[in-house]
Write a structure and sequence with these properties.
This protein has about 575 residues and is α/β, with parallel strands linked by helices. Among the domains are: about 180 residues, Rossmann fold; about 110 residues, GMP Synthetase, Chain A, domain 3 (2-Layer Sandwich). The strands form six sheets. It has an eight-stranded mixed β-sheet with strand order 2-1-11-10-12-13-14-15. Strand 19 and strand 20 form a beta hairpin. Helix 2 crosses helix 3 and helix 2 crosses helix 5. The longest helix is centred in the C-terminal third of the chain and has 20 residues. The protein is globular.
Length: about 575
């Protein structure tokens, strides 16, 4: 099953499949004078300058001893320096090991130890995580030019490293005399550790072809014009942002703008007002917060608006006005917002659709570099709740679909499927079939037109005594739609279902201002009783909730804000 695609741009050709170096060279030729990449509110590098910077950095890395197959770590926030260093590493046939900046120190040590990285690109905010590894690390380069004055470790600021590269190899680059080793499409480009919801992270091996094929396929379903501004707010060390928020804009001749550290709404609004992005990626949590904090209160506090929203025409008119204000918030010229990394609440998606907001939902995994299904952009026939069609070059099918519901495990095949898990043949054999299909571990259905619907993780399915399969994510979406619920987890205990709720304490504080502790407790209890009653009315008899339990702190989540469900098994008693 493949999605309908736009006409192929002359700048995006089949050669982009070869490897990341060919892809970058092609972009530099096609868009040489266009702005390529930079920090928000700062002057960007052009494609020509970005390419030159990468080449001389690669030459210096080679002179420092980095060669084909060596692994180089990246533990830093987004920046143009991160991108330049990454491309310099893969130019040599070496392997980049991006590490999510939010990972705790113990996980960082595990990754660096297992990967045996001798070089690392990092930043001031991350430097303490590598203090204890100074004997292992031969070179520590700070992408934000941080200078370590404590003497604990020796670091080299990126600016100094770049200046040395320019002094030693600048003239050779200008004269076209720099020569680099041949790199094949099947050579490893990145090893990324999954931020999975079902247990210990695995090291995913992605080749040049995996990443190029996925970037190229996405470029055929996302309508981004040369010169467009792509605002990046998610970590580029995650494959979702890397492929769709980094490779895609480069393939299309766009300008990547990094927001810096995770921006607050006020900072984001200031950046959007100045940069006026045409495209950006977000996780569902961002849009869900906007809906619950900015949209619902406006409607609920006005009897007139609340009454009008009971009718389709009135609701559409009101949502369109709110949608226009939302577009203004993001700078006024947003053409597409990619939403992925986790499931989007159906109520929020319904609002975005009626508001005329330009969004596209995607589905994928780290193991698939990452996108499997999305859009295509601008397709009005995509049903609500669907993640769209298989992207070009990807095949999707269902394993053993239920004859009544049509739900089965989603299998995927294509040039973007990982090479396997690092040093784990058993896990690789479990994930990949002999004929190249990846078992995603996600349950879903595909309608007759080819649109994919995700139901939940196969490991999270709850089988009730009646034999009915319960997908807890479906119930959680209903719970999370209520304004006083931040997030929830549905579990089976003693043959019944219960929900753990992390409430919105800011909302509760506003609603119970001036009340004592007992009154607040009665308010929360009453809200939970009402919540259980309202949600149970929408569920089958076997999937109704027996009780709701308050959780006093947020659930532990992955980089894309999916809850690590395995931490909250039915046996867990500690709330």
């Amino acid at each position: 099953m493949t999605a309908a695609t736009e006409s192929e741009s002359p700048a995006v050709t089949q050669e982009c499949w070869a490897n990341l170096n060919v892809l970058l060279d092609s972009c530099a030729r096609n868009f040489a004078e266009l702005p390529a990449i930079g920090m928000a509110l700062e002057a960007p590098l052009s494609y020509r300058d970005f390419h030159a910077r990468i080449a001389i950095l690669a030459a210096l890395l080679a002179a420092e001893g980095i060669s084909h197959g060596d692994r180089v770590a990246f533990l830093a926030e987004n920046s143009q320096n991160w991108g330049a260093a990454y491309f310099a590493v893969v130019r040599l046939g070496a392997v980049a090991v991006p590490i999510l900046p939010d990972l705790p120190e113990a996980d960082v040590h595990h990754i660096l130890g297992e990967m045996k990285c001798l070089f690392i690109f990092t930043s001031q905010r991350q430097i303490e995580k590598v203090y204890d590894l100074k004997e292992q690390l031969q070179k520590i380069i700070t992408l934000d030019d941080y200078r370590e004055d404590s003497g604990v470790v020796d670091v080299q600021p990126f600016a100094d490293f770049l200046q040395e590269a320019e002094a030693r190899f600048g003239e050779q680059y200008s004269a076209g005399r720099l020569v680099f080793p041949e790199v094949g499409g099947h050579d490893l480009a990145s090893i990324l550790y999954t931020s999975g919801t079902s247990g210990f992270s695995k090291a995913v091996m992605l080749t040049h072809e995996n990443l190029c094929a996925n970037g190229y396929a996405v470029s055929r379903i996302m309508n981004i014009k040369p010169g467009s501004t792509f605002l990046s707010v998610l970590p580029v060390s995650h494959t979702y942002e890397f492929t769709v928020g980094f490779l895609l804009p480069l393939i299309k001749g766009g300008r990547i703008v990094y927001a810096g550290k995770t921006p607050t709404p006020a900072v984001l609004q200031r950046i959007c007002a100045a940069e006026r992005p045409h495209a950006m990626l977000v996780v569902p949590l961002i849009m869900e917060k906007i809906y619950k904090k900015k949209v619902l209160p406006v409607i609920e506090k006005s009897r007139l608006l609340g009454f009008a929203c009971r009718f389709k025409l009135g609701r559409r008119l009101i949502y369109r006005r709110i949608g226009a204000k939302l577009l203004e918030f993001f700078g006024g010229r947003l053409e597409v917002m990619g939403i992925g990394g986790a499931s989007l609440n159906p109520e929020v998606e319904a609002f975005l659709r009626e508001a005329g907001f330009p969004y596209i939902i995607g589905y994928g995994l780290t193991e698939t570099a990452p996108l499997l299904a999305a859009g295509p952009h601008g397709d009005p026939a995509i049903p609500l709740g669907s993640t769209g069609m298989a992207i070009p070059g990807v095949e999707l099918r269902l394993a053993d679909p239920d004859p009544e519901t049509g739900i089965g495990e989603i299998l995927a095949r294509g040039p973007n499927i990982m090479k396997g898990y690092w040093n784990d043949e058993e896990a690789t054999a479990e994930a990949l079939t002999a004929d190249g299909w990846l078992r995603t571990g996600d349950m879903g259905s595909i309608d007759p037109r080819g649109y994919l619907f995700i139901k939940g993780r196969s490991k999270s399915v709850i089988v009730m005594a009646s034999g009915e399969n319960i997908y807890p994510e479906v119930i959680e979406n209903k719970l999370n739609a209520f304004p006083f619920v931040v997030e929830s987890v549905v579990l089976e205990k003693g043959g019944a279902l219960e929900a753990w709720i992390y409430p919105d304490y800011e909302f509760i504080d506003e609603e119970t201002a001036g009340q004592n502790r007992q009154q607040r407790h009665r308010y929360v209890t009453g809200k939970f009783d009402l919540l259980r009653h309202e949600v149970n009315k929408q569920l089958s008899v076997n999937s109704r909730l027996s009780r709701i339990v308050e959780r006093r702190e947020p659930f532990v989540k992955t980089a894309t804000h999916k809850i690590k469900r395995y931490l909250y098994s039915a046996d867990t008693r500690d709330l």
